Amino acid sequence: MANPRAQTLQQRFGFVDKDLTSYGHDIIMTWLDDYCRQTFIPWAIDVLQKECDEMAYHEEDLTKIPPKIDTETEIKWEYVISVNKYVVGFIDMAVIINVPYLRHTDAYPAETWWQFHSRTFCFEVKTKIGSVGELLRQINMYREYVKWQFYVVAPDSQYKKQLQSQNVGFIHYPGKTNLWMD
Q1: Distance (Å, whole) CA 48 – CA 99
Q2: What's this model's pTM, rounded to 2 decimal places?
């Protein structure tokens, strides 16, 4: 019997996430969902609000006080990255936060106003990192299609420095480290 045809661009390039069907992956995903709601989202909102306040501070028209960031955020499991209805791949988890940013017109008289756009943070969950090179290739392929911040979540922080040197955040899963054996 022939091998099944690759369904995503990610699969065509040989990235098969064996973790996805494991119990350990589900445990870390559930932990990550709670972590995002309790820790990551409040931290991200605080950082993004400071960025908005900084933008407003440098604006000539000081009446342009930034609106508060919408605290209604979305957490999406197995978030699809697609281009022209072709599925590139799936991110284990995405956090989407609506953030205000300043818009300007070039017309006379110039106008400035606040508008909201989505900031997306992506999380790849690994019960173990077998190859940091393969993981970075997977993330860099996604980056060809989206310009979002990526984080790896794993129980082993062995490759934390290498990931951070490639602008990939690392979040340590504090639970059992042999989840890949489940």
Answers
A1: 7
A2: 0.79
